[in-house]
Amino acid sequence: MNRDLLIKLTCLKCQRSTLEESNRSLVCTFCGQKIPLNNGIPDFLSVLKIGKISWIESGIDGTAYDAILSKMDGYRLERVDKPLLDYVRGEVLEIGSGTCWLAKPTEEPQVRYFGLDPVMPFLLHSQKQYGLERLVCGQGEKLPFRNESFDCLISGLYAYRYMSPELGLLEARRMLKKRRHICF
User: Fold this and answer.
1) Could you tell me which of 135, 154, 144, 151 has the C-alpha nearest to residue 85?
2) Is residue 146 a contact partner of residue 128, using CB atoms and an 8 Å limit?
3) Strand ordering across the sheet containing 25-28
4) pTM for the complete prediction?
5) pLDDT tens digits, residue range 91-116?
6) Domains of the chain, start order
7) In the chain, alpha helices (H)
8) Which residues pair with residue 26 across a beta bridge?
9) If phi over 0 gives left and psi between -120 and 50 gives alpha, with beta otherwise, what is residue 140?
10) How far apart are CA 169 and CA 110, in angstroms?
11) What is the pLDDT of residues 8-27, one digit of tens each?
């Protein structure tokens, strides 16, 4: 598992940064909570006991999804991506990363990209297609990261899907280092 990601993660149960990799999972050395790893990607969604939607698990083709996004390229580029990417510097968390569409333009020396999405097949596709290593399966209302971990948070097409937008924004603010940017 990627070391840069591991040091930012916290246990959702006890909120401590005491996770260690052990036998295809992360284990909290304080409370014993286990977080499964799927190809090195921590699956915090399963820990939250939200349940998985079977059609999402088996029916999503990341390549087809990327193809759909590329057809919207003009709109996305001008209306969504460019305004968001103007703020991207330092360590960046994309909430609702999907197939990590915004990771490609952020591949610059001054940017370290982290992606979070509730759909594991999207993350596995991103890992395989783009070689991304700092990916987490989870939800925006319960972020498994330490306080003040990121310089910038971006979310191009996810924030409207929050079950609780107020909680999602509070979590986003908790993640940011002082005087940094949230771009939804």
Assistant:
1) 154
2) no
3) 19-21, 25-28, 34-38, 41-42
4) 0.83
5) 999 888 888 877 766 667 778 999 99
6) 3-183 (3.40.50.150)
7) 3-6, 44-47, 54-59, 62-71, 73-75, 82-85, 120-130, 165-175
8) 21, 35
9) alpha
10) 25
11) 999 999 999 999 999 899 99
